[in-house]
Amino acid sequence: QSVLTQPPSVSAAPGQKVTISCSGSSSNLGTNYVSWYQQFPGTAPKLLIYENNKRPSGIPDRFSGSKSGTSATLGITGLQTGDEADYYCGTWDSRLSSGVFGTGTKVTVL
Amino acid sequence: QVQLQESGPGLVKPSETLSLTCTVSGGSISSYYWSWIRQSPGKGLEWIAYINYSGSTNYNPSLKSRVTISVDTSKNQFSLKLSSVTAADTAVYYCARLRVTMVHGVIMYYFDYWGQGTLVTVSS
User: Fold this and answer.
1) A30 vs B: CB within 8 A
2) Contact A49/A55 with Cβ under 8 angstroms?
3) Largest CA distance in chain A
4) pLDDT, tens digit, 9 for 90 and up, residues B20-41
C-alpha cells in the first residue's frame, strides 16, 4: 500500500553510523520535500527532519537528511541505544493527491 | 508549546461510524492545517485527511468515500468521522498539525506536532 519503500531493518554497533533509504517516484520524492519521523513503541511519531534536511529545534545534529532524485536518506551518526526505534519517511504525492509515508525501518543498536 | 489530545470511543461496532475529536491547546487552530493519521497494530502510518482553519479539506483517496473531517475554531478542535467501519479500521488514530506550502510547484509537507494517539477497536 505504501508508495515509499524503506528497508525493514538496519543495525549497527553503538557509536557507528546507520543510513535509512526511502525510495519513491517522480510524483512524490522526485518533486516534493521529504520529512522523517522517529517512533518509539507505544508512542506517537516525532518529527526528526523536514524540508529534506532541516532539523527542528532540539533534534541533535547526529540526525541528518538528504534527497536526490526519487530517493531520500536519513543518517544517524554516533548511534546510541536510545536511538532504537522505528523511522518513517513522508511526503506528498502529487499524482495521488495524497500524503504518503514510507514502510518504516526498525533501527537496532547491536 | 502546542499540544494535541484525541478523544472519542475506544470501541466501535462494525458498520457504525467512528467519531474522534482533537483538542488543540497552547496555540490557536487558526492559520494552520490539521490532520488525522492512523496506524494499524504492528503496521505503518497512513494519512487520512487534512483540514485548515477555514474548512478547506483533502482526503486520502482510498478512504475518501467514508471520511469527513471538520473544524470548530470556537472550541479549538477538529474532528474525524469514518463511516461503515470494519475490523480493518482498527488502529491507533493520531491527530497532528500539518505544515504544508507550495513554492514553485514543490510541496513542503510535514507534521510537526502530534497527539498521543487513541486506540480504536472495531468489534461487535
Assistant:
1) no
2) yes
3) 40
4) 999 999 999 988 999 999 999 9
Say if CB A79 and CB A18 are below 8 A apart. yes
Residue A9 makes CB contacts below 8 A (sequence gap 6+) with A105, A106, A107, A108
Quick check: A99 and B50 in contact, CB under 8 A? Answer: yes
> Does B107 contact A92 at a Cβ distance shorter than 8 Å?
yes
pLDDT tens figures, A14-38: 999 999 999 999 999 999 999 999 9
Residue A1 has pLDDT above 80, yes or no: no
User: Which residues are within 8 A (CB) of B104 and not within 5 positions of it... i.e. 6 or more apart?
Assistant: none
Closest CA to A79 of A16, A10, A9, A19: A16
A65 touches A34 (CB < 8 A): yes
Mean pLDDT calculated for residue range A78-94:
97
C-alpha cell at B23: 483538542
SS3 A37: strand
Task: Identify the contact set of chain B against chain A, taking CB-CB distances under 8 A.
Answer: 35, 44-47, 50, 58, 60-62, 94, 99-100, 105-112, 114-117
Residues with Cβ within 8 Å of residue A103, at least 6 apart in sequence: A2, A4, A5, A6, A8, B44
